[in-house]
Design a protein that fits this description.
Number of strands: 9
Radius of gyration: 17 Å
Shape: globular
Number of helices: 8
Distance between the termini: 32 Å
Order of helices and strands: EHEEHEHEHHEEHHEHE
Length: 234
């Protein structure tokens, strides 16, 4: 399989990139700044998704079979912030967490159709899509809930063409971004809220992504898989 993974420089994206590559697939990754392995693209820029898609197609010889929309941000803004700061935070979060995945999914669907149909889209959502988040993260929860709705819409709209869409909804996950917090007082509070007694690892989420991208049955299209240690069940 030829696969594009966004947000592949760290955390879940890096783990998914490494796992998919280790299992014999041709992978192209993305990060905001890029490096020797990853295509640079700032997904806050409306022109970036198409530029990224075209660059990934070029690297993969003109064929992409799976799109993994993992890139996202988690930036706080208080409900008492000035209007300009509030609107800027919402615009940036929605641009990166929702609009860019939508743009890439649209390009993927057009590509899948052009080559005769068939392909997969895996979106990385969040537990916050279903149970909400902190008072500083209205915009994050809203963006992930919309990503879930988009996944289901794609699944329903394109299944007849064998274009399949899935999502994974992690809870708190061990990554470079969370290690310091988990070592501090906040970590105990997070773990106390998880019946499993620990947070998920990036590798666990990556394995779920791999399964959805490669092995999940077509009849499961539209499925959202929770990876949160039963901290939220639906």
């Amino acid at each position: 399989m030829n696969i594009l993974v966004t947000g592949a420089s760290r955390g879940i994206g890096a783990a998914a990139f490494a796992l998919l590559q280790s299992t014999g697939h041709q992978i192209v990754g993305h990060s905001t700044r890029g490096d020797d392995r990853l295509i640079p693209a700032d997904l806050a820029d409306p022109a970036a998704p198409r530029a990224l898609w075209d660059a990934a197609l070029d690297r993969l010889g003109g064929r992409i079979d799976v799109l993994v929309n993992n890139a996202g941000i988690y930036e706080a803004v208080g409900d008492d912030a000035p209007d300009g700061e509030w609107h800027s935070a919402w615009a940036r979060t929605l641009a990166i967490n929702l609009q860019a995945p939508a743009d890439l999914a649209r390009l993927a669907i057009a590509h899948f159709r052009l080559r005769g149909g068939g392909g997969r889209i895996v979106n990385v959502a969040s537990r916050a899509a279903f149970r909400g988040d902190s008072p500083q993260h209205w915009h994050y929860a809203a963006s992930k809930a919309a990503l879930v709705a988009m996944t289901r819409t794609i699944a329903r709209g394109y299944a007849a063409e064998q274009i399949l869409a899935y999502a994974v909804a992690p809870g708190f996950t061990v990554s470079e971004m969370t290690e310091e917090y988990l070592r501090g007082r906040g970590g105990a509070q997070v773990v106390a809220d998880i019946p499993l007694g620990r947070v998920a690892s990036a590798d666990e989420v990556a394995e779920t992504i791999r399964w959805l991208a490669i092995d999940a049955p077509a009849s499961a299209t539209g499925t959202i898989i929770d990876v949160n240690g039963a901290s939220y069940v639906r």
